[in-house]
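Suppose a colleague, Dr. K., hands you the sequence of a protein chain of 575 amino acids and asks what its three-dimensional shape might be. Before reaching for any lab equipment, you can write down a predicted structure in token form. Begin with the sequence itself:
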Amino acid sequence: MNDDQGAPVRLDLAYRSAALEAASSEGVDLLVIGGGVVGAGAALDAATRGLRVALVEAGDWGGGTSSRSSRLIHGGIRYLEQMDFALVREALVEQGLLLRRLAPHLVRPVRFLYPVQRGLPERLYVGTGMAMYDAFRFTRGRRLPLPPHKHLGRAEVLREMPGLDPGAVRGGLAYYDGQVDDARLVVTLARTAAALGARVISRARVVDLLRSGGWVAGARVRDELTGEEREIRARAVVNATGVWTAQMQALSPARPTLRVTMSKGVHLLVDRDRIDASMGLLLRTDRSVLFVIPWGRRWLIGTTDTPYTGDPAHPTVDSEDVSYLLDNVNRVLARPLRREDILGVYAGLRPLVAAGDGGPTTKLSREHVVETLEPGFTMIAGGKLTTYRVMARDVVDAALADASVAAPPSRTAEVPLVGARRWRAARELAYELCRPAGLADDATERLLWRYGDRLLDLLHLIDADAELGEPVADGHDALLAEARYAVEAEGALTLEDVLTRRLRLTGEVDDLSEEHLERVAAVVGEPLGWSEERRREEVSAYLAERAREREGAGLPPSAGEGAPDGHAVVGGRQA
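The predicted structure, expressed as tokens, is then:
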């Protein structure tokens, strides 16, 4: 596994400063606004065509919807009921591309059980849908890389899923989908785009559009770190801001062409030992479907699908959301979950394209829509995480056509993301390489599925500073080296960026003390130039946000929030 070529760009502070300077002084062919999965995908798409590209994001990469999903790369079985066969097939083809070629280090198979509760008619109905799901995985005579579904009898279901209530199931169907760390996918897309020459700049907010001769010709951007405003000239501008589409439309005098409705999806995290099961669950509810997803040492339970009209930057989880999820999952569990079992909660917002006034968001399509609001300004909305590459291709095609910019067709179906290029070699050599660093095989496995062939970057950090090979906290998997790497290579600029979207510890561990957080802040603060005061501010802000989330959901304080006399709080109980 040779590390002497193909190294991606390091998204550190120096890169960010240089990228902003170059984009504003030189101009670009395409300016993409929005650093979620679609915006990052669009920047990558344009960069693979040889275009000069800039990508700007007001906050952190994937800081909105794209880091708050169910973390699934799937076709969407529920869309079969809505007869949206084209969307399901498109998503399953994209799933196969990600698993096989584009991101095999980020996307991995996950097995689910659909428990049959109402006998033969339900089994036949669901089995027909899953047979269609399997059939849609064939493309160009080649089956995409997941096993077909399988019917299970009641005894077999209970052997594999002892945690289910025997009286609640009559059998089941097992099937496979894919799962991904959605936030890591976004930052990997941004890094891949940067490696191909795109200027990718986070904490850069668009405050106005530039115009020339009746065309949108770029944007005025405020550097959120310094407050300085710069102009980035572009031949075409793409708006890929998801639930912030209306705010971007407001910068244009043209009549809005897209109306985006926000749908809130809430998720809970609980310990794996709270549900004795060998695979995840897919359950029907009166509103939609609910997943119980294996996620490392946790179960991820979600999601809701309800209209949301609040601040898109701070979607709230309320007690009713928690009750809905617990009530529905407890219908099939032998040992019901309680609020005290919940380690963390989060809410994400789906940007659905409204097809009229009112009505439930569960009826709105997840298909995407591309529109030109005014010459030079192309918008995209709708869609889903799995089909980000198709969405990116379509919006870049439309923007280039509108601006009469000649470019080759999309190449992203053939371009592996950062970490995937030498994936097979990485898997073969990783364990041998990691043992001298004192990493156990399970730690190596975790790093492989997060960094792929860039695992060597982490080993270099540990080799230079052995302390970075230690876990963030005893009993946890994340290493201090990952926190350092997040700010030196992956564009993280705050403690929230590091813990919530790079290491994914927020909500997944409930016992990070203030001392643990201060240690992480010291590791990331050094390359970011933080003072001791800034480190304390970062820790305080992080703890305050966690407290706000749990209070809003009606949950007891987490361990990190502390308790009287310095005792930790575990699951709402003083230890």
